Amino acid sequence: MCGILAVLGCSDDSQAKRVRVLELSRRLKHRGPDWSGLFQHGDFYLAHQRLAIIDPASGDQPLFNEDQAIVVTVNGEIYNHEELRKRLPNHKFRTGSDCDVISHLYEEYGENFVDMLDGMFSFVLLDTRDNSFIVARDAIGITSLYIGWGLDGSVWISSELKGLNDDCEHFECFPPGHIYSSKSGGLRRWYNPLWFSEAIPSTPYDPLALRRAFEKAVIKRLMTDVPFGVLLSGGLDSSLVAAVTARHLAGTQAARQWGAHLHSFCVGLENSPDLKAAREVADYLGTIHHEFHFTVQDGIDAIEDVIYHIETYDVTTIRASTPMFLLARKIKALGVKMVISGEGSDEIFGGYLYFHKAPNKEELHGETCRKIKALHQYDCLRANKATSAWGLEARVPFLDKDFINVAMAIDPEWKMIKPGRIEKWVLRKAFDDEEHPYLPKHILYRQKEQFSDGVGYSWIDGLKAHAELHVNEKMMQNAEHIFPHNTPTTKEAYYYRMIFERFFPQNSARLTVPGGASVACSTAKAVEWDASWSNNLDPSGRAALGVHLSAYDQQAALANAGVVPLEIIDNLPRMMEVGAPGVAIQS
């Protein structure tokens, strides 16, 4: 992932201001270590830190149209750029970069071209002819982006908080699926899918249509001019990503450049469940597998760096980001610059274990909609920033616009968890191919294992014990006075909050982090599904102990009926331990 920074209309075109913009841009250098660029037009500054994935030789930014009147700084990938180029026959492109189409689309279609882009992106476009500009962020918020305002009337844009928090009077998250136009002076939503209204869909479940949509989503993400691989935890989502990638890699441009053998990567504590499961999937698929170990102390030592880079104090996000942060560093050290990952599936299909308690299809569908809309504050933020911290790009096929449209159009009755249907059954069934199996049955029907559990059960307990050493009871008693917004209710949360406030002390910064009641990663609305949850508002999976136990009973029943292989039952007692907390991340 690249880093973008823009200061727009600051009433200061001095050399000192240029030096300050360069200084702030360097705070994002970890995101794009391959090249730095800065364009100045009067008191408008567009800076870029490049991670070169497509056309590394000539795609440096900012990018321009033919006469250099339109200037763009972009973070992301436009998967349909070749198709879009064909729709612009009268334009001459300066580079082979996928992002080069943006300035030319603006010339042809004005501000209404953003929905034509198929990919993940955030960009700033400056039209120097009238000094107007637009800013846009991808549909789901896979790429991170913030907007701020200076006392001098300037508008600031940055891929991360640290690019603008010290210089803006107020700043906030730039909302996904939106465009900001200087001409109108405000934000408007460009992404308007049918599911966004939360109306209940009625399309019958078609497993082959779902399978084809996901395969297309994965295949288009094989667009790369640099070495890549897949993140593989051994759970359903990452295993499907790996299986589809391995099946379709041969014959692609990526395979011709880098070989047809897929590389896979996994991280965990010694002897953790994820390591064992990932190894089994890698052996089945024939990937070149890289297994990395970390200790609890390694993770604790990284916490401050994680909070600085992830820019949150949300407990579950920090717990889950740390192993991914450590893994990303190892992957980049191998010379790999892009990975494909499994975020988004649990939100789309109701894969979290609390969905067992959904009272009806209407409630289940509404919750999946809310979860997708919030991804930019949780799993997308984690996946983007934990990898970008080391100059690594993560692509997420489950969050492909077309795939989401197919998956969210399914009658949610099919997503309900009931006897004979484990969570995410519609996804599992779509890839249950007896003739040409994608995965072994016991992997395809493996119970949800949330990432902080999967990397090793002592990880969370180690974090809590460490927080106990740094936060005393008196601090907790005064927490509501010290932190009146999103008051921490545990010592672990207090510890993370102290670190966050040291890096980002502004009130605007603390407002960028979500809060509210949650149980086992649910939204506040879903807490109403079970009366007992209101007395145990723990965002981790241990709050859903009853759900875990009922899931165990259901799995056993399925095994007895021959629906789920007996092998997966062997792991369930360990998975259901009271001491095994969960965190929302790919399974």
Automatic annotation (TrEMBL):
- CDD domains assigned to the protein according to its UniProt record, in alphabetical order: Asn_synthase_B_C, AsnB
Recorded catalytic activity of this chain's protein: L-aspartate + L-glutamine + ATP + H2O = L-asparagine + L-glutamate + AMP + diphosphate + H(+)
Name of the gene this protein is made from: LOC105125953
Q: State what protein this is by name.
A: Asparagine synthetase [glutamine-hydrolyzing]
User: What's any one GO cellular component for it?
Assistant: cytosol
A GO MF term: asparagine synthase (glutamine-hydrolyzing) activity
Positions of ATP binding: 231, 267, 341-342
Q: What top-level class of enzyme does the UniProt entry assign?
A: ligase
Where does the chain bind L-glutamine?
Answer: 98
The family database entries (Pfam families) matched by this protein are listed as:
Asn_synthase, GATase_7
Site (Important for beta-aspartyl-AMP intermediate formation) residue list: 343
NCBIfam families from the UniProt entry: PRK09431.1 (NF006949)
- Please verify whether the record's keywords include Kinase: no
Supply the alphabetized keyword list.
Amino-acid biosynthesis, Asparagine biosynthesis, ATP-binding, Glutamine amidotransferase, Ligase, Nucleotide-binding
Q: In which pathway does it act?
A: Amino-acid biosynthesis; L-asparagine biosynthesis; L-asparagine from L-aspartate (L-Gln route): step 1/1
**Biological process (GO) annotations?**
asparagine biosynthetic process; response to stress
Q: Which residues form the Glutamine amidotransferase type-2 domain?
A: 2-185
Concerning Gene3D superfamilies, the annotation shows: Glutamine Phosphoribosylpyrophosphate, subunit 1, domain 1 (3.60.20.10), HUPs (3.40.50.620)
- Entry superkingdom: Eukaryota
**For this protein, what is the EC number?**
6.3.5.4
| Catalytic center residues | 2
